[in-house]
Amino acid sequence: MDAPRVTLEPINAGSVVDIAYQRIRALIEEGELGPNARLRQGDLAVALAISRTSIREALHRLTAEELVEFKANRGFFVASFRLDAVLDRLELRRVLEPGIARLAAERRTDEDVAELERIVEGQVAASTLRLAHDLSRGFHIRLARTTGNEQFVKVLESLWSPDIGRQLLIRRSATPGWREADAAEHRGILEAVAAAEPERAAALMERHVAATHEHWAREVHADLDEASA
Hints:
Elements: H1 13-29, E1 38-39, H2 41-48, H3 52-64, E2 68-71, E3 75-78, H4 83-107, H5 110-125, H6 129-146, H7 150-159, H8 162-172, H9 178-194, H10 198-228
Antiparallel strand pairs: 1-3, 2-3
Helix pairs in contact: 1-3, 2-3, 4-6, 4-9, 4-10, 5-6, 5-9, 6-7, 6-8, 6-9, 9-10
């Protein structure tokens, strides 16, 4: 009896690089590789059972996303975030996310609305600040997915690394009521999306991201004042 024929997708070099990129990025985002940790190509190649060339390509991709930095004659290291870089990303989000909210309100399905509702409810009931933060990020990513355009998702994910967000969380948690305010603003955006009101959704999102941008701008100025004192 002949063996059944099985169709397999070949594993090409690009696929291996993608896997390495995702694995290393996950280690950084989950905090298993902290800021300034050295990323030894040989060790990573052995751990993932792939070539150093594939590891190097993955690290260059992460470098382009500013999650990793390359130091001449020393190698690759997990990047340490800077608040001024965070401001740059938030400025881009202020331009990008109102458009995402507008499209989401135009294209959302009942399933989209139900999932966004689940995320907001989870954020309100979250047992830890870290979980609340991750759900907050999840709301924005899920809203981007609601547009039906995965390019928005990819761009937003690259702008908002969970690792950086969790580091910022330590400072943000000192602001009274920020968690409740964040969830309430998400609720307002969700209601506009569910009601198919694109302009209101866009305006609420612009106000939401602007408030975050302005908060961290004040933090940057405070740090500069402290450094110069």
